[in-house]
């Protein structure tokens, strides 16, 4: 199975700053079938990005995804208070679908 | 707007079978075919895909759980279900049902239930 490693584990930033989250795969992710989710405490994950770079419905354009092969990035251009959460990447190009361990974006 | 809701016992004894149902509202499961999924999250940990079922009944399971998992679908009731046998404390988790954004097998999950906590304990 494809192992996804996210870095850093925790990102401490202030509102208005830019966040850059990394997701590295143990082998190439087929056709860039890579998604990013946001999860807040007590809530289900929310799909942000699919296909490595396509924003899901209703997702603000401050969220952007990039990458291919084994290296992917989620960027948040200017952090809003509601963006402080845990972010997970997921590959769905090779069964079993797998998730990264998560990156927590916390308020500095 | 389609919504999903998990239901089932919150406490299961070790060695017994965990059974959960996901009820779909705001749309018919028969109107469009999807690979409906189950995902779980142990307390304080990350997400694990358990398996998925197509509207026609074809299934795909995570090999790590395959010997213990059964997912079924009843489109007439707008429901799909999860059974996990021989549970241990390691199966304690929040269990989510989810629907992908597209009808293709290669689709991320964009509609999620709120999740239901299942604790395995005697």
Topology summary:
The complex is a heterodimer of chains A (108) and B (122).
Chain A: E1 4-7, E2 10-13, E3 19-25, E4 34-39, E5 46-50, E6 54-55, E7 63-68, E8 71-76, E9 86-91, E10 98-99, E11 103-107
Parallel strand pairs in A: 2-11
Antiparallel strand pairs in A: 1-3, 3-8, 4-5, 4-9, 5-6, 7-8, 9-10, 9-11
Chain B: E1 3-7, E2 11-12, E3 18-25, E4 35-41, E5 48-54, E6 59-61, E7 69-74, E8 79-84, E9 93-100, E10 109-112, E11 116-120
Parallel strand pairs in B: 2-11
Antiparallel strand pairs in B: 1-3, 3-8, 4-5, 4-9, 5-6, 7-8, 9-10, 9-11
For the biggest sheet of chain A, the summary is: 7 strands, mixed
Element-level helix/strand string of chain B: EEEEEEEEEEE
Could you report the average pLDDT of chain B, rounded to the nearest whole number? 96
Overall mean confidence score, pLDDT of chain A: 97
Shape assignment of chain B? globular
Strand elements of chain B, count: 11
- What structural class do you assign from the helix and strand content of chain B? mainly beta
E-strand count of chain A: 11
Cα end-to-end separation of chain B: 39 Å
Could you spell the SSE succession of chain A in H and E letters? EEEEEEEEEEE
